[in-house]
């Protein structure tokens, strides 16, 4: 049993470089990968430019964003003691998305630094409002309730923004952005998101023992030394940084945060602490694979990666329900 | 890893207000090492609240809890967690981890001061103490209520903290395991620990505990030895039942009678 688990983890680690090569060889034009690598970073041969300036940053972004979403989902499920939680549930993604929509709405340059920074601010504001609404020393269930309420409100605001979109172009831009995409992203986006994601990951790493203690329940966790507001805040801000930064550069990509921790949990003996980094790893792999799928799908319009992950995620939900009907646990 | 010096745990006119209701009021009491204390009282008397305040997981709204005359609130939470282990009344684990992993969570306050081998040895010993050695690898959510409770008790004991506070530890246990549980707590007290249990079974309280605190409507109604507290008049007044307290073969015995 234990050997099997480690084998699967090893498999995930080994699949990542293979998926990376697949992602680097996929795209509208075929390039000679070996030659492009040999040409090096500074070469201006077209193959090298495509590899180093277009495909590599996109693949790296898929890895970074996937890791952040997996990590955020694992942390959220651990904190709320609920396997169905994901960052979108607490309005983190909506907060970031709404902020981004407002930027798009007023026609600010999408490529600038304004959009990602505001998206992170939006995620933090959403988390802050959930925190304030739930009140001092809120239980996890009150937090979820506050999150659902804030999320509903933010969704209403997003619908309103769409409704009054100044032009068809802005509307299209917003909708596509909401679907999530890794297209046309470069090193700028990677460099912009990475520091925030790393900060978020550090916060979540520091709260791993809190998440472990919470497996027992809130009172027991408090008696084990994890009382007060410090630890829940650390987790919430960790999630806001990691997920907010991801949404900022890639739009809203759902289901990774839900599916990945679910799949990984049995592999780490249900330990919410170890689940964090394993989910980050698997999230990276899943999003990279989804992007390989996107890159290899022919069509006039590139498939939106958010649509792809939803296509993977929704049937997963069906499977969860069917399994629970057959007597398993959710 | 027990603290070498004896601790005196004390409540100074402790009060707790929850949901606009005075749950505890003016509680003064002290707990000494080597003593097994039962907190008894009817449902809603404030037993769980008192235990929560003692364990530091509920912030009291009046008075304070002190250890060796040092206010509990001034002790860093991480240090406090090593001094005092607490088992809440009802909590079900969120994830179906193996029982031994759940027990190991009781060692979290000590961080990395135990090696992996030491941790495993302590977990195994704690599980054996509650007669759950064979449950070590079973997923906790697949255990029965009583088995799960025993595993949680092992979590309480695993850190060897000098103060043990447990809220109805025997609930859901069969009679054999209830007795075994009380024996275990008796041994822990005899080893110089402060042990405080909220308990409904007055028979077990009379038989195993050195002292009893009787709560009624958030106030301390009586405290003392079982013989002092479990008098016929007092039990009739608080619980509304007839009863008898007697000594049989040198052992205190409490027998509940009829409704009055």
Task: Describe the protein's architecture and organization.
- With 330 residues, chain A is mainly alpha-helical.
- Chain A has a single domain (2-325), classed as Orthogonal Bundle (ABC transporter involved in vitamin B12 uptake, BtuC), CATH 1.10.3470.10.
- Chain A has helices at 2-25, 33-39, 46-80, 92-105, 114-134, 140-163, 168-179, 187-206, 208-214, 218-223, 230-250, 256-264, 272-295, 305-325.
- Chain A is globular.
- The mean pLDDT of chain A is 87.
- Chain B has one domain: P-loop containing nucleotide triphosphate hydrolases (Rossmann fold), CATH 3.40.50.300.
- Chain B is an alpha/beta fold.
- In chain B, a hairpin with a 2-residue loop joins strand 11 and strand 12.
- Chain B is 33% helix and 30% strand.
- In chain B, strands 6-7-8-3-9-10 form a 6-stranded mixed β-sheet, sandwiched between helices.
- Chain B is globular, with a radius of gyration of 18 Å.
- The A-B interface holds A 81-82, 209, 212-217, 219-220, 222-228, 265, 269-272, 329 and B 52, 55-57, 77-78, 80-82, 84-88, 91-98, 101-102, 105-106, 108-109, 111, 139, 141, 152, 155.
In percent, how much strand structure appears in the residues of chain A? under 5%
Tell me the CATH architecture of chain B. Answer: 3-Layer(aba) Sandwich
Secondary-structure element series of chain B: EEEHEEHEHHHEHEHEEHHEE
Mean pLDDT score of chain A: 87
Number of helices of chain B: 9
Backbone shape of chain B:
globular
Radius of gyration over C-alpha positions of chain B, nearest whole angstrom: 18 Å
User: So how many helices of chain A?
Assistant: 14
Q: Which series of helices and strands of chain A comes N to C?
A: HHHHHHHHHHHHHH
Can you tell me the CATH class of chain A? Mainly Alpha
Runs of chain A in which pLDDT lies below 50 for 5 or more consecutive residues are none
Question: What would the principal axes of the Cα set say about the shape of chain A?
Answer: globular
**What is the rounded distance between the termini of chain B?**
49 Å
Label the structural class of chain B. alpha/beta
| Largest sheet features of chain B | 6 strands, mixed
Report the CATH topology name of chain A: ABC transporter involved in vitamin B12 uptake, BtuC
Known CATH architecture of chain A = Orthogonal Bundle
Low-confidence stretches of chain B: none
- In percent, how helical is the residue content of chain A? over 70%
**Largest interface (CB < 8 Å):** A-B, 24 and 33 residues
């Amino acid at each position: 049993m234990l050997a099997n688990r480690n084998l699967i983890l090893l498999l995930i680690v080994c699949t990542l470089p293979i998926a990376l090569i697949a992602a680097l060889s996929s795209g509208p034009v075929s390039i000679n990968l070996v030659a492009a690598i040999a040409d090096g970073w500074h070469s201006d041969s077209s193959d090298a430019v495509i590899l180093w300036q277009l495909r590599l940053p996109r693949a790296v972004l898929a890895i970074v964003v996937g890791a952040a979403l997996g990590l955020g989902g694992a942390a959220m499920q651990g904190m709320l003691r609920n396997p169905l939680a994901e960052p979108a549930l607490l309005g983190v993604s909506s907060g970031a998305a709404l902020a981004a929509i407002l930027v798009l709405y007023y026609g600010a340059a999408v490529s600038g630094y304004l959009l990602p920074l505001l998206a992170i601010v939006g995620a933090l504001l959403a988390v802050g409002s959930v925190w304030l609404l739930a009140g001092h020393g809120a239980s996890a269930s009150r937090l979820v309730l506050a999150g659902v309420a804030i999320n509903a409100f933010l969704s209403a605001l997003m619908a309103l923004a769409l409704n009054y979109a100044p032009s068809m172009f802005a509307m299209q831009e917003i909708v596509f952005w909401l679907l999530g995409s890794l297209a046309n992203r470069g090193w700028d986006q990677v460099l912009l998101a990475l520091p925030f994601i790393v900060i978020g990951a550090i916060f979540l790493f520091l709260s791993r023992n809190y998440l472990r203690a919470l497996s027992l329940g809130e009172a027991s966790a408090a008696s084990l030394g994890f009382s007060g507001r410090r630890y829940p805040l650390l987790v919430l801000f960790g999630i806001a940084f990691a997920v907010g930064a991801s949404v900022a550069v890639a739009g809203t990509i759902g289901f990774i945060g839900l599916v990945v921790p679910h799949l990984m949990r049995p592999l780490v003996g249900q330990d919410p602490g170890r689940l964090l980094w394993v989910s980050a790893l698997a999230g990276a792999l899943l999003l990279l694979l989804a992007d390989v799928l996107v890159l290899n799908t022919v069509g006039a319009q590139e498939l939106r990666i958010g649509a792809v992950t939803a296509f993977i995620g929704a049937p997963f939900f069906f499977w969860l329900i069917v399994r629970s009907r057959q007597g398993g646990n959710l | 890893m027990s603290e070498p010096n004896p601790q005196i745990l004390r409540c100074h006119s402790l009060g707790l207000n929850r949901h606009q209701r005075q749950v505890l009021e003016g509680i003064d009491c002290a707990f000494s090492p080597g003593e097994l204390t039962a907190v008894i009282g009817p449902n809603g008397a404030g037993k769980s609240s008192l235990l929560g305040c003692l364990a530091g997981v509920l912030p009291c709204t009046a008075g304070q809890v002190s250890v060796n005359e040092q206010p509990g609130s001034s002790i860093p939470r991480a240090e406090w967690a090593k001094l005092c282990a607490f088992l809440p009344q009802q909590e079900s684990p969120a994830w179906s981890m193996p029982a031994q992993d759940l027990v190991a969570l009781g060692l979290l306050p000590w961080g990395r001061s135990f090696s992996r081998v030491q941790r495993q040895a302590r977990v195994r010993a704690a599980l054996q103490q509650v007669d759950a050695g064979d449950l070590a690898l079973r997923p906790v959510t697949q255990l029965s209520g009583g088995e799960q409770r025993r595993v949680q008790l092992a979590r309480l004991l695993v850190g060897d903290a000098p103060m043990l506070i447990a809220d109805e530890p025997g609930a859901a246990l069969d009679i054999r395991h209830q007795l075994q549980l009380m024996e275990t707590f008796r041994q822990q007290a005899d080893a110089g620990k402060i042990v405080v249990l909220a308990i409904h079974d007055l028979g077990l309280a009379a038989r195993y505990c050195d002292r009893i605190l009787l709560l009624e409507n958030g106030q301390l109604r009586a405290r003392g030895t079982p013989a002092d507290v479990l008098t016929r008049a007092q039990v009739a007044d608080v619980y509304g039942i007839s009863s008898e307290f007697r000594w049989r073969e040198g052992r205190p015995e409490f027998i509940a009678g009829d409704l009055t």
